[in-house]
Design goal:
Blueprint: E1 16-18, E2 24-26, E3 34-39, H1 45-61, E4 66-72, H2 84-94, E5 100-102, H3 107-112, E6 116-117, E7 119-124, E8 129-133, H4 149-158, E9 173-174
Parallel strand pairs: 3-4, 4-5
Antiparallel strand pairs: 1-2, 3-7, 6-9, 7-8
Length: about 180
């Protein structure tokens, strides 16, 4: 259940990636009380099913110092719908309220040992990994969620508590690695 290289409590690798807003972004610029780093993409039905919930998490926790940031590492040659231009279109159509960044060389996904979209890494204000896994236990039916892993972890982080479920297995589409 644990990641191969990035363990809970490990320093989260910083990065500089281009965003759909035309600017370069770093992990450290977003950390106030914490950051929800989501490896994401456009084409994955799991990601699509979670987009509204991701926006809700940003709306709820953004004012409390937690920032959601999505990173798309997928190979656009094999999945053209995940291209940078299509990222801009999707973000506009879906009215993303969080930065959407492009990991063109897939170096950030490799540094985090990410394998799926959506895959969640919650990082605290000291830039340490405190949660890794999935958003909740029902990707298809939001109204039937019984365990809100990410939401619970964020609340525990903000309350200064130990994260009760620091890791879950990830679900979703595999990252489309360059060949």
């Amino acid at each position: 259940m644990s990641t191969a290289t990035l363990k809970i409590g490990s320093p989260a690798p910083d990065f500089t990636l281009p965003g759909i807003d035309g600017k370069d972004h770093t992990l450290s610029e977003y950390i106030k009380k914490g950051i929800v780093l989501i490896f994401s993409c456009n084409h994955c039905p799991y990601v699509q099913a979670y987009e509204e919930r991701i926006k809700q998490i940003q709306n709820e926790f953004g004012p409390r110092g937690i920032r959601v940031v999505a990173v798309n590492p997928n190979d656009e040659k094999t999945y053209p719908e995940d291209s940078f231009d299509n990222m801009k279109k999707r973000a506009a159509e879906r009215e993303f309220n969080f930065p959407y960044l492009r990991d063109e060389d897939q170096g950030v996904a490799r540094a985090y040992d990410a394998s799926h979209t959506p895959e969640i890494f919650l990082i605290d204000d000291k830039q340490k990994l405190v949660f890794h896994g999935k958003i909740d236990d029902n990707w298809k039916e939001p109204d039937k969620v019984k365990s809100s892993y990410l939401r619970d972890a964020i609340n525990e982080l903000l309350e200064g508590k130990k994260i009760s479920v620091p890791e879950t297995f990830t679900i979703g589409c595999t990252i489309k690695w360059k060949i």
